[in-house]
Every structure is written in C-alpha cells, then in structure tokens.
Amino acid sequence: xxxxxxxxxxxxxxRALIAFIVLVSLYIAWRFEWRMALAAILAMLHDVLISVxxxxxxxxxxxxxxxxxxLTILGFSLYDTIVVFDKVKDNxxxxxxxxxxxxxxxxxxxxxxxxxxxxxSLAAVLPVISLLVLGAGVLGAIALREFAIALLVxxxxxxxxxxxxxSPLLSLIKEREVSFRNFRGSHAVGAELAxxxxxxxxxxxxxxxxxxSTTDGTQTNILTPTSEALLTHPPRPRxxxxx
Length: 243
What we know:
The chain is mainly alpha-helical. It has two domains: 3-181, Multidrug efflux transporter AcrB transmembrane domain (Multidrug efflux transporter AcrB transmembrane fold, Up-down Bundle), CATH 1.20.1640; 191-231, no CATH class. The protein has eight helices and two strands; from the N terminus they run αααααααββα.
C-alpha cells in the first residue's frame, strides 16, 4: 500500500466523518434537542476512538473494508443511542411537573430499554462472530478478518456507550437546567425506582408507613405499595375438602 493512497483515504475518511457528524447533530437537535445531540456525538466519537485504538494495537492495515466497518460502527452507535434518547424524551413529558431529578428520569428510561438494547446488540454481534470464525478462520479471507474485527469491537463499544456514556452525559447536561437544578443528587433506588419504572409516576414507592394528619389532629398510617405487590398475584383460595 502506497503512502499517497493511505493519505488520500485518511483525508476522505476525515471529511466524511465531519460531514456525518454535522448532519447527524442537526437532525438530533431538530428531532430532540441540542443537548441530546451533544451527548450522542461524544458517545459516537468514543466508539470510533476505541475501535481505531484496538485496530492500531492489533497492527492491521487500513483497507477499504476497514473504512466501511468504521462507517457501520457510526450508524449502529447512533441507532442504539437514539433508541435510549427517544425513551428519555417520552419520560420527560410523562414526568413533567413531578418534581423529580433528571438522574431518576434517565435511570427509568435505561431500565425500560435495557433488554431491548441487549437483544439488539446480541442480534448484531452473533453474525459478526460467525463471519470472523468462518470467513476469517476457516476460509482464511483476510479482508473479512479485518472487516469483522473492526465491526465487532465497534458493536461492543457502541452497545455499552449508549447506556453508560451517552445517557449519563445527557443527565449531567440536563441537570444544569432550572427545572432540574433543585433536585440534583436525588437518586431513586430499589423499590422506589422499580415503582417509577412500572407505574411511570414519581410518587414514593418504598414500603414505609407515611403519617398523614386528619382534621381532628389524629394521624393515620398509610402503607405504600411495594414493587413486589405490583409484580405478584394474590394467593389462590384453598379448596374445601369433602368430609
């Protein structure tokens, strides 16, 4: 491979990456908001850097198949992130005025789409693994090996970046808004988070007794339902035995 060809490929790839980032940022900002666009682009750049770094450590040459793999990584990373952000947008409307933190809304959204993201990632990774084992290992196709390795690393990094990078970044950015500033540091865990995921409300969900005052000054105990009560069925009545 000549140095001029590699330089030309690098320049074209950089120009294509810049154009891709600009167009995607405009679309996400128009469809959602600019904060989501910023978090999505940062997560996507993370995926590309990790993939390029692993590819460089292995020592493979940059080929057209590698460029195609990197472009595919960009699309998959954004797809998984958009799925999470779409659920965040729905929950922002659902929890509007509920006086809860952005961290809680983000956690609820991630819990609701976690299995979908895992299943999508597995469905995308399994064909790539078979391509790597059969195409590169059995048939000995070098082009398939270079393409499959870059794609496999990108798919794995894109799967966790949408959950562990893009969503926390969005939460950190959104918490600076006036509507969420007073609730920073509030994190629902355990039964409270399960109640928010299941019911879509920000009311308390821990199994604690709340004291409520009545008009005559007495106090009554109200038992708040737990997530276990929401997930289980009442016991079936026993049949009477015949004597």
